[in-house]
Amino acid sequence: MTTLDDKILGEKLQYYCSSSEDEENGDSDSNSNTPKKNERSLQIETSQLEKWEGTSQNTGPKGVITDWQRFKQLESEKRNECEKERIALAKKLTLSVQSTLDEEREKSKLEDPEISELLNDEFLLQYQKQRMEEMLKQQNHNVKFGELIFLKNSEEYLDAIEKEHKSVKIIIHIYEKHLKACQIMNSCLAELAKVYDNVKFCAIIASVAGLSRDFKISGVPALLIYKNGILIGNFVRLSYEFGDSFYAEDVQGFLIEHGMLEDKTLVPKIVKSINDQSDDSD
Asked: How far apart are CA 214 and CA 210, in angstroms?
């Protein structure tokens, strides 16, 4: 017999599927799938552990220190390797250059013996000496003085300038006998004449040279430098520069500073050897 519940539901109660039964079935299905998911997660974690290389970003203080030490070790090893490569490359290039020069010399010996002779170091040194000797002869013309020359009158003054070889440098001291600075200057020039024997050092009294009264009072001691008949240096009132007490080294430094004398300390060794040989031959 149909009841009120049957009419409301439209079907019999035994054919009715309640939601509670569905929920129970759903729970049972989910419970059955849970073990499978857990098994997959375990497999993933296991594979990740197998790939781990000993370093991790999420470590404690000890792990951070270890990572930093490892990083510095790798950096130093890389730097050492780069340095070794640079040294090896430099050695290789050096050896290649030396071998190339040797090959060129051997090749020149086979092809042209004259060129191989030009490449010889002894030949080049000998050629340099020969050229320096020629240049020194042209410059100095083998003229030697070695002493201070006192000029007696204006004619000797002009002859000392005009009749000398064009390559000779002439330094003339204009002085007065009663002045102490002039006396010291004469003694200094006498010493320098021995050192620079290729330079002509002269001295003349101002009144004998025909100079004015004012120049004799305030212009001496004075040094006039000539070369090839041309005045190239004019230094007056040198007592203001040196005072009443000075030495030959002071005058030498002054003339070197103004380009009137050569600095002996800067003469090349090859020139010194040529000069020594010429002195021995004399």
From this structure: 12
What H or E segment, with its residue span, contains residue 141? none
Do residues 145 and 201 make contact, with C-beta atoms less than 8 angstroms apart?
A: yes
The answer to whether the beta carbons of residues 197 and 146 sit under 8 Å apart is yes
Enumerate the β-bridge partners of residue 231: 226
The residue extents of the domains of the chain are: 16-46, 148-281
0.85 exceeded by pTM: no
pLDDT single digits (tens) 146-158: 999 999 998 999 9
Q: Which residues contact 189 (CB under 8 A, 6 or more apart)?
A: 148, 171, 173, 201, 203, 248, 251
The reply to whether omega before 221 is within 30° of 0 (cis) is: yes
Digit-coded pLDDT (tens) for 246-257: 999 999 999 999
The per-residue DSSP string of 162-222 comes to HSS-TT-EEEEEEE-TT-HHHHHHHHHHHHHHHH-TTSEEEEEETTTTT--HHHHHHT-SE
Identify the H or E element spanning 253. helix 248-257
* Chain centroid offset of residue 7 CA: 114
- CB–CB of 171/223 below 8 Å? yes
Using the structure block, give the residue that is written with the tokens 């030949």.
123
User: What is the identity of the amino acid at 178?
Assistant: H
Bridge partners (DSSP) of residue 202 are 149, 172
Q: What would be the CATH architecture of the domain defined by 148-281? A: 3-Layer(aba) Sandwich (3.40)
List the Cα angle 167/150/143 in 5-degree steps: 25
